[in-house]
Specification:
With 119 residues, the chain is mainly β. It has strands at 2-7, 10-13, 18-26, 31-39, 45-52, 57-59, 67-71, 77-82, 91-101, 104-109, 113-118. β5 (45-52) and β6 (57-59) form a beta hairpin.
């Protein structure tokens, strides 16, 4: 099993920056990819960014060029550097880990960290 704990959220003015972190524990050697998604008030969850074991990163169009996903080599920590923040980036951000456990493909989510961008 993999456990995830996010941190780094907060209140920031539009145009500002925040760096989110996600600490992973448990069977981290079985992780094959990690990602961030977000859920704004009254809206469905939205994928933000994903990074694979080879380092390839994929971003949603809404954050491309402003956000950067990265990780340490051992999958201990996942990061999301968010620059040029906009009010529409306000959401609860969740960390996700895709991993194998007992031969099965599984996913874990963290509790989330709230980001509020004021105009």
């Amino acid at each position: 099993q993999v456990q995830l704990v996010e941190s780094g959220g907060g209140l920031v003015q539009a145009g500002g920056s925040l760096r989110l972190s996600c600490a992973a524990s448990g069977s981290i050697s079985s992780i094959v990819a990690m990602a961030w998604d977000r859920q704004a008030p009254g809206k469905q969850r939205e994928s933000v960014a994903m990074i694979q074991s080879d380092g390839e990163a994929i971003y949603s169009d809404s954050v491309k060029g402003r956000f950067t996903i990265s990780r340490d080599n051992a999958w201990n920590t996942l990061y999301l550097q968010m620059n040029s923040l906009k009010p529409e980036d306000t959401a609860v951000y969740h960390c996700i880990a895709d991993y194998f456990y007992s031969g099965d493909s599984r996913a874990s989510w963290g509790q989330g960290t709230r980001v509020v961008v004021s105009s």
